Every structure is written in structure tokens, then in C-alpha cells.
């Protein structure tokens, strides 16, 4: 596909390469967009339930990516560091919940501590406790990583911190792969609650085990609902935190101008640690939800979701919180629709093509503002 | 300090020499190349245990040609590079002339190139790809054999079973395009299924690291096939069948011997079928003896006797084939042993084995069903 673009480039492009490239790039993008809309429209008309089912898969994926992308974007907004270890924090979150559930039966603690309690309370409180535990462990880990690996390099060139981030990421992946840590195997994940599936056709009905839903129906599960609710809830919570609290104000001030914030009496180190902790908590929650949804975990499960969430953050405009959310939803749809209408192995190629296109055409992303002059 | 270090080095060197010369004198050495780490460690452990059991039994009877048999176990990780390194190590360093292994086709193929060029007899217990025993030039590799049937046969048997016993008219194929084993089975299933009058209503590919099958399964649900053919390893099967159950897909899943693992999620795969080399529930005396001896030697986490799976059974068969051939050749010379193997007629655990001209065994396949949390024997299909 790049060949025709190269042919269109006039020989005089050497004089003003930037301007031409941008216009060619935009034209190319519009062409792809028009093609995609046409193809997807055709698929929608051909088989609407299948299309809806694929979009739902994309939403589920997108909401998980959103949780991870928030951490990337927040940390970048404050310290201008792309924290590549973030995907591995996500992995640790999944493993913490795995051990909590299989070894300690934490998801059943209300029933174990108060034997007479109603099972509804157990089903609601137990899994939430598991998620909270994962979030807390991830927060502690992220703060430690920040103190040990990133803080000493805060005044070093940005590339040094970036390479350290990659190093921390590798460390977590391969330390986790040791046989006495998480082992290098794919581990089947035991869910803290049972899956319930519904189908939509003339109203919403429960799917009975051993009985297929009728033709032309769209199915969704309680996992999907939990992921959407948790992700939206976290987004709202984060907006509140950043816009309405004192800490949020300090975060915004630090992001805007670190030295000035320090002069105003803001404890910048504390704000940065706090930002890492909040991002890691979201990643930990994302890890638990991802593991619940796809029921298999291993020590390198964080790499691809982490990278894709990073692409989502860049697509939305890195540093922008609503941007990360919107970018993640777009990424989820792009992946699901690619899997549905092109082919499954193509999905990673499409995900990273989006990254390249964004960087070429609008490096600041959808919600990002062009780099402002700073003192 | 320096003299101490030198002295230490000297002692180490002497020790190494002593242990080396000791190793050189020990009877007949048989290398076992198995993936003890990597993506499929349960395959490796079972293979090693099966082969070691056979060697123990021979040693208890006085070894072969009046000599003890010494096993040399190496971890080959189901991956080409480590497998090649392990093969070079056992051939050049340990002076091994007979290899049992590797488990995975993609590792066995490069090992077979080395073994054949160095006149080392290799029997792969479970590598099902045709290229293991036949070179790129189409000529059979003189020193290379296998104890299992090959991919085309498994695909054919699967299709025969789907059409005949399950009365399926439509099938949906899910495959990992990058895996030769999966591709081989899927290809021959498709060929035999359509030749037998069935229709393939959909074919979707995924990659080995995928965990989200929801989109492919949405297509399966829309296509409404009678069977879904998923000839991959147990880790993929666990994920895909679990997600299929949750989507309310009722069509049975079918696969090959990659399903055979203690880690297979029996609840998720319930209602599925797979082709395999043998069943521990078979009543033939060879099978009963193996199950008894294996259970007596190896225990699981709960100290219960371990049940040998097909990998253990085939490794056991492969080792027995090799040692029987050495005995029949009445010589350690690998050319004579290979000639004896080529015309062997051996009553193995996984059926009566003779070799065809491409060094592939001619024997029967077993169909197993996953039902009510157990893997049960369904039927035997003859070639």
C-alpha cells in the first residue's frame, strides 16, 4: 500500500518535504477512513447481530485498555516519562488476584468469617476485596519502582529514565518467569465469581447452560458489565480527584511547571509518587479484570496490552485523561473489527499502524494540544 | 591466594577428567531430549518419565547386549535452538549414539538433520510432522524414526469420526497459521472432510499468544457448524472452549493429541473429542502393564499413582523399539540398528508397530471423549 504514496511524491518535494508529506498523509488517511466506513457499513447491513457482537468484544477490550492507558497518560503528564513497566504492573495485578483467590480463598472471606451471611453479600464483597488487594499491592510496587529506579534519574536526560523503564519492565517479566515466582507457564485463572450470560433478542434473556441462544441474538456476560462499570467508575473518580481535590490541584500544578510548583510549597516528590500509585492501582484493577475476562495468565501477559494501551494514550493525546479513555475505546474497536472482518493475526499490525499514522499526522493525538512554549 | 586458586583449578580439572573417563566406560548411552521447560513442560516430564521407565525395566533384566543402559536427559524446550544445542552436546560431548526425542516437530526436525548426518539413531516419540523422517529432497532419513502416527493420519481419522460417528455435515476450523502441527492437522481434516461430503462453513486463524477468542467465537456462533475442529495444544483449547461455553456454543470441539494433558480443562472441553495414540483405559495387556509399572514408579502431588498419558506411553514405546532393535541387530553399530528398526514388528503399548518406507509407523488411532470431568475411551480407528 505505501507504493502509490511514494509515486505521488513529486520530485520537488525535497524543498518542502514537511508540507507535502502532511498533505499526502492526510489524503491517505481520509482514503483509508472512507474505505473502512464503506466496508464496515456493508458488514453491518449483511449481518447486524454479528456486527453488534464484534463491537461488544471491542468495547470489553477497550474498557480494559482504558484502565491501563490512564496510568501511562498520568505519569507522562507529570514527569514526561513513558513508564514501560506499566504493563508489567498490570501483570502483577492479575497474579496477586490469582494467588488471593486460589491460595487464600479471599473471594469467599465474608462466608468464611461470618458463616451465616447471605451469599449475595459474599458474591459482591468478596471479588471487590480481591480487586482492592490487587490495587493496593500494585500501588506499593509502583511507588517502590518510582523511588528506586526513576527518582534518582529525575534530573538526568529523559532517555536515561526511558531506558531504565524498559529495564524495569524486563526485570519484572523475567523475574516473574522464574519457576519459584510465577513460573513461565500459562496458568488457568480461577474466577472469583461465576459467569452469567444473557442474550438480547425480543428483550433480555438468561442463557441456560447446554442450550444455545436463538439465531440472530447478541450475547453479553456479567464480566462485560463489570468491566464497563469499573472502568467508567474509575474514570469518574479520577476526574473528581484531579479537578476537585487539593491533591489534584497539586498534580495539575506539577504537570504544568514543576519548579514553580515547588516554589509554591507543593511537595513535588509526594505528588509524583501519588501519581504513580494511582496509575498502578488502575493497572492492577485492569489486570484483574483482564484475567477474569480471558481466564489465562502468564508472566508476559502485560507486554501487548501494555503496548496497546500506550498506543491508545498516544492516540488520545498523551497527558490527556479523557484522551486516554477515548483512545482506548478506539483501539478496542479497531482490534475487534480487524479480527472480525480482516483476520485475527492482523490485529496487532493494525494497532501499531494506528500509532505510526498518529505520529505522522497528528503527533499530539486527538485531545492533545500542540506543545506550548514553556519558561 | 593465587596458589590456592591454582590448586583448586587443578583439582577441578582432575575431577572432570575422572568423571569423563568414567562416563566413557559406562554401558550403552541413550539420550532423552524432552521439553522440561518452555511452553509445554507437562509434555516433557511425561516423555522423560516414560523413557526412563523403559530403561529401568531393561536394566532390571540385565540391560542390552550384556551392558547396562545409561540415560542422558537434556532439556530441549520444544524450541529449535535449545534442541540443536542439546543434540550437539549429547552427540559430541557425551558420545551418545541413540536419541529418544524431541517431542515437538519444530524441534525434532533440526535435531534429525544433525543426527542423520552423524549416523546417530533418533526415534521421536511424538513428533507428527512428515518432515521429521523425510528430508527436503524427498528421501527418507536413514537413521531417523518415530513412534507415533503422522499429522495427515490424525486429520483423516478426525474427519472420518466427525462424518461417521458424529454424523456432522458442517465443520468450522480454528487454527494457528504459524504452527506446523496445527496447520498439518487442519489441512488434512479439511481435505478428508470435504472429500467425504462434508462442508467447511468457516476457517479462522489466531496467533499462539491470543487469549481473547470472542470475535472468532462470535463467527462460530453465527455459522452454526455441527463440529468445531481446533487441533491445537491444551493451553489454547482451555481458553477457546471455556469462552465458547460462556457464549452458549453447543457444537462439540474436536482436536488431536495436543489435547492430551493433565492440564486440559475438563469442564470447559466437556463434550469434545480428540484423536490420540492410546488410552490408559484400554484393556490390552501391554497397556495394563505400563499403567501398573508407571503408577508404581511415579506419584502425583497427592501421592496417588500417576497415570501415563500418550506422551509417556509413546516415549516408553520409542525407547523399547530402540533397545529391541539393538538386541535384534546384535550390535551397537548404528547402521545395523537402523536396518533392524526398519523391518521391526513390535507389539507396543500404542498398538502393533511396523514401519513403512518413510519410517512412519503403521498402527491404529484411538478416539477419546471428554465427558463429565473425565477423558474416556471412545473407539479405535484403523488406518
Notes on the protein architecture:
- The complex is a heterodimer of chains A (375) and B (383).
- Chain A has 375 residues and is mainly alpha-helical.
- Chain A has one domain.
- Chain A has 14 helices and 5 strands.
- Chain A has helices at residues 2-8, 17-46, 48-79, 86-102, 109-113, 119-150, 158-176, 222-244, 246-256, 258-263, 268-294, 303-316, 321-341, 347-361, and strands at residues 187-188, 197-200, 204-206, 218-221, 296-297.
- Chain A has a 3-stranded antiparallel beta sheet. A two-stranded antiparallel ribbon of chain A has the order 1-5.
- In chain A, helix 2 runs antiparallel to helix 3, helix 3 (48-79) packs across helix 12 and helix 8 (222-244) runs antiparallel to helix 11.
- The longest helix of chain A has 32 residues, at 48-79.
- Chain A is globular and about 65 Å long.
- Chain B is an alpha/beta fold and 383 residues long.
- Chain B has 2 domains: 2-149 and 288-298 and 308-363, Rossmann fold; 152-276, Response regulator (Rossmann fold), CATH 3.40.50.
- Chain B is 43% helix and 20% strand.
- Chain B is built from 11 helices and 15 strands.
- Chain B has helices at 2-25, 41-60, 80-93, 105-117, 151-164, 180-195, 214-223, 234-246, 285-297, 310-329, 334-342, and strands spanning 28-34, 69-75, 98-101, 121-124, 144-146, 170-176, 199-206, 227-229, 253-255, 273-276, 346-348, 351-355, 361-362, 365-371, 374-381.
- In chain B, helix 3 packs parallel to helix 4.
- Chain B is globular, with a radius of gyration of 22 Å.
- The interface between A and B is large, with 38 and 34 residues.
Amino acid at each position: 500500500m505505501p507504493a502509490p504514496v511514494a509515486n505521488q511524491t513529486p520530485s520537488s518535494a525535497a524543498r518542502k518535504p514537511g508540507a507535502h508529506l502532511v498533505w499526502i498523509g492526510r489524503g491517505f488517511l481520509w482514503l483509508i477512513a472512507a474505505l473502512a466506513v464503506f466496508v464496515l457499513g456493508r458488514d453491518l447491513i449483511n449481518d447486524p447481530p454479528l456486527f453488534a457482537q464484534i463491537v461488544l468484544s471491542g468495547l470489553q477490550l477497550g474498557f480494559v485498555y482504558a484502565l491501563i492507558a490512564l496510568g501511562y497518560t498520568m505519569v507522562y503528564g507529570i514527569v514526561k516519562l513513558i513508564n514501560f513497566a506499566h504493563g508489567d504492573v498490570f501483570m502483577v495485578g492479575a497474579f496477586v488476584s490469582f494467588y488471593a483467590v486460589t491460595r487464600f480463598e479471599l473471594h469467599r472471606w465474608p462466608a468464611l468469617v461470618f458463616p451465616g451471611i447471605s451469599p449475595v453479600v459474599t458474591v459482591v464483597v468478596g471479588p471487590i476485596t480481591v480487586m482492592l488487594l490487587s490495587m493496593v499491592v500494585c500501588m506499593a510496587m509502583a511507588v517502590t519502582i518510582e523511588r528506586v529506579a526513576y527518582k534518582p534519574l529525575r534530573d538526568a536526560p529523559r532517555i536515561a529514565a526511558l531506558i531504565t523503564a524498559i529495564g524495569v519492565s524486563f526485570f519484572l517479566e523475567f523475574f516473574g518467569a522464574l519457576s519459584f515466582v510465577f513460573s513461565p507457564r500459562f496458568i488457568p485463572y480461577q474466577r472469583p465469581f461465576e459467569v452469567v450470560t444473557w442474550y438480547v433478542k425480543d428483550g433480555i434473556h438468561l442463557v441456560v447452560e447446554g442450550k444455545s441462544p436463538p439465531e440472530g441474538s447478541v450475547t453479553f456476560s456479567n464480566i462485560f458489565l463489570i468491566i464497563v462499570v469499573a472502568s467508567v467508575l474509575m474514570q469518574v473518580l479520577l476526574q473528581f480527584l484531579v479537578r476537585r481535590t487539593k491533591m489534584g490541584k497539586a498534580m495539575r500544578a506539577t504537570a504544568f511547571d514543576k519548579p514553580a510548583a515547588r516554589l509554591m510549597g507543593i511537595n513535588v516528590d509526594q505528588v509524583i509518587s501519588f501519581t504513580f500509585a494511582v496509575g498502578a492501582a488502575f493497572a492492577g484493577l485492569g489486570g484483574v479484570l483482564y484475567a477474569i475476562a480471558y481466564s489465562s495468565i502468564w508472566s508476559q501477559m502485560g507486554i501487548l496490552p501494555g503496548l496497546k494501551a500506550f498506543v491508545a494514550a498516544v492516540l488520545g493525546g498523551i497527558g490527556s485523561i479523557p484522551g486516554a479513555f477515548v483512545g482506548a475505546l478506539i483501539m478496542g474497536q479497531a482490534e475487534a473489527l480487524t479480527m472480525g472482518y480482516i483476520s485475527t493475526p492482523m490485529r496487532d499490525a493494525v494497532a501499531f499502524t494506528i500509532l505510526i499514522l498518529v505520529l505522522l499526522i497528528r503527533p499530539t493525538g486527538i485531545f492533545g494540544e500542540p506543545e506550548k512554549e514553556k519558561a | 591466594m593465587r596458589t590456592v586458586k591454582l590448586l583448586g583449578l587443578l583439582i577441578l580439572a582432575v575431577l572432570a577428567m575422572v568423571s569423563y573417563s568414567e562416563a566413557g566406560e559406562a554401558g550403552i548411552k541413550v539420550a532423552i531430549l524432552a521439553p522440561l521447560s518452555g511452553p509445554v513442560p507437562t509434555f516433557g516430564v511425561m516423555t522423560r518419565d516414560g523413557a526412563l521407565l523403559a530403561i529401568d525395566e531393561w536394566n532390571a533384566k540385565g540391560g542390552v547386549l550384556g551392558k547396562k543402559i545409561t540415560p542422558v536427559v537434556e532439556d530441549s524446550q520444544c524450541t529449535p535452538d535449545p534442541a540443536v544445542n542439546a543434540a550437539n552436546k549429547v552427540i559430541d560431548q557425551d558420545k551418545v549414539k541413540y536419541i529418544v526425542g524431541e517431542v515437538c516437530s519444530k524441534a525434532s526436525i533440526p535435531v534429525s538433520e544433525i543426527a542423520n548426518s552423524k549416523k546417530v539413531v533418533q526415534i521421536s516419540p511424538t513428533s507428527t510432522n512428515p518432515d521429521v523422517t523425510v528430508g527436503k529432497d524427498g528421501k527418507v532419513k536413514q537413521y531417523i524414526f518415530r513412534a507415533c502416527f503422522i499429522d495427515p493420519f490424525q486429520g483423516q481419522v478426525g474427519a472420518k469420526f466427525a462424518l461417521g460417528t458424529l454424523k456432522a455435515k458442517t465443520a468450522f476450523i480454528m487454527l494457528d497459521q504459524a504452527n506446523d502441527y496445527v496447520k498439518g492437522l487442519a489441512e488434512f481434516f479439511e481435505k478428508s472432510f470435504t472429500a467425504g461430503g462434508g462442508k467447511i462453513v468457516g476457517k479462522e486463524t489466531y496467533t499462539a499468544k491470543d487469549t481473547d477468542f470472542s470475535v472468532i467465537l462470535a463467527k462460530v456462533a453465527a455459522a452454526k457448524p455441527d463440529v468445531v475442529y481446533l487441533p491445537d495444544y491444551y493451553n489454547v483449547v482451555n481458553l477457546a472452549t471455556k469462552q465458547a461455553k460462556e457464549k452458549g456454543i453447543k457444537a462439540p470441539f474436536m482436536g488431536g493429541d495436543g489435547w492430551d494433558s493433565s492440564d486440559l480443562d475438563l469442564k470447559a472441553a466437556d463434550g469434545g473429542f480428540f484423536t490420540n495414540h492410546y488410552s490408559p483405559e484400554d484393556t490390552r495387556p501391554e497397556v495394563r502393564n505400563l499403567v501398573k509399572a508407571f503408577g508404581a514408579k511415579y506419584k502425583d502431588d497427592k501421592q496417588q499413582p500417576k497415570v501415563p498419558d500418550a506422551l509417556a506411553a509413546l516415549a516408553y514405546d520409542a525407547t523399547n523399539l530402540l533397545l529391541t532393535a539393538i538386541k535384534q541387530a546384535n550390535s551397537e553399530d548404528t547402521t545395523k540398528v537402523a536396518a533392524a528398526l526398519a523391518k521391526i514388528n513390535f507389539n507396543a503399548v500404542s498398538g502393533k508397530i511396523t514401519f513403512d518406507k518413510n519410517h512412519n509407523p503403521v498402527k491404529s488411532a484411538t478416539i477419546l471423549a471428554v465427558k463429565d470431568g473425565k477423558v474416556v475411551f471412545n473407539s479405535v480407528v484403523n488406518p
